[in-house]
Amino acid sequence: MTKKSAHIENNNIEEIATEPVLAFENQANLFAYTPEAAKTMSAKNRATQPTTAKKAEPEHIVIPEKKTRPTKTRQPKAQTVTLMGAVEKPGIKPTSFIKSPTIMSATGKLQLTPQNKQLENDLIELKQSQRGKTLTGTVCVIEESKHMGIVAVVMHGGYKVMIPATQFKIFPPFDESKGYNSIEHMQRAILNKHLDAQIDYMIYPQPDSIVIKDSIAIASRLAAMRSIKQDAWIAKDRRGQTKIQNGMVIEARVVNVPFSAAVVEIQGIEFMIPRQELSWQLLKDATTKFWPGQTIEVVVRDISTTDDGEVTAHVSHKEAVKNPQEVALMHLQEGSTGTGRVTVTTKDGCYVILEQGAEVKCDLPKFTIIPKAGDRVHVKINVIDMTTLRVKGDIQRVYER
Question: In whole angstroms, what is the distance from residue 381 CA to residue 337 CA?
Fold first, then answer.
């Protein structure tokens, strides 16, 4: 080998030695293709390529002109001139736009109804009554109206329902011998005995019978009674029977209590029950045990209906309840003593109801004062008759009322 060729070989060796040689841990990876490797290489290629960034064009910003508010001229406050000088008037705040406070529930569900919502519900029920629905209320006031005369007032929520006397009940003929000065005087005297009575009524079908502005409505009790009477006493079912039959026990409303009787309403018809049919015990004054607004049980017998729709029947409260004397005499012995209240005092004696329920007829005492109704007395039992359920005794002592 010549020197020239040896020099050329040495130069090639030096050039080759200057190139860096990278070491690979695994030679097989040079020819292996994987998706991850491809993604890595494509990312490297994109990084090496020069990117030509576009210059951002300057944006033109439009600044709106500032609006100038019109200047308000302050007006002088109203003043009142007095001896001490000018005094400023207090401002009056309008009250018609004040909102009602919001009601918060304590249990998660509102239990109370707002007042304006309640008035709307009351008005809806009154309008339904104009189309035939029957409402129920309590007589609270008897007053005189300029246009309708004597009226009975029933409150239906926030509305005042006025029932004229001629639409409340059928009055007896006017009689001066009974102490009445005029027809209005008679109507007021009779309606006063119906205070606290529970009645049915219907609003007049005329549109002007409800005045929303004044919360007033005009109603008729007789119209409601006729509707209920037709349904309970006259109308018949497929078997040809009415709702109320002989011997039935029915709830009755006490509407009026004279001295010796009680007037009750049973499904649209008023009946008068004498005091003999009110109680098993001797009852001189019916007002001591019965009052308007009370609900009692009665037995209806001997029902008779005419072609005109008139209904008559025998009504008894005594037959609807058990005789308390039967139970009381089972726990009473002759010779025993007890205390009770005097119910009736007559010339023949006085009647005493013991604390345990038995009624005892006693002769008038000879060695003590004569007791009156309501006095508390000490009684000795002499005779007990289980056949007639009667007890006789003597009054030993009279206590204070």
Answer: 6
Q: Tell me if 303 sits within 8 A of 266, measured CB to CB.
A: no
CA distance 128 to 364: 62
Single-letter code of the amino acid located at 95: T
How many angstroms separate the CA atoms of 375 and 380, rounded?
A: 16
pLDDT digits (tens, 9 = 90+) for 381-398: 999 999 899 999 999 998
Going along the chain from its start, the domains and CATH numbers come out as 116-226 (2.40.50.140), 239-320 (2.40.50.140), 324-398 (2.40.50.140)
The pLDDT of residue 327: 84
Angle ∠(77,83,86) on CA atoms, nearest 5: 15
End-to-end Cα distance, the chain: 163
CB 264 within 8 A of CB 273: yes
Assess contact for 364 and 370: CB atoms under 8 A: yes
* Cα–Cα nearest to 160, from 113, 203, 112: 203
108 — alpha (psi -120 to 50), left (phi > 0) or beta? left
> pLDDT tens digits, residue range 110-155?
565 667 788 889 999 999 999 999 999 999 999 999 999 999 999 9
What is the Cα–Cα distance from 19 to 119, expressed in whole angstroms? 103
* Length of the chain as a residue count: 401
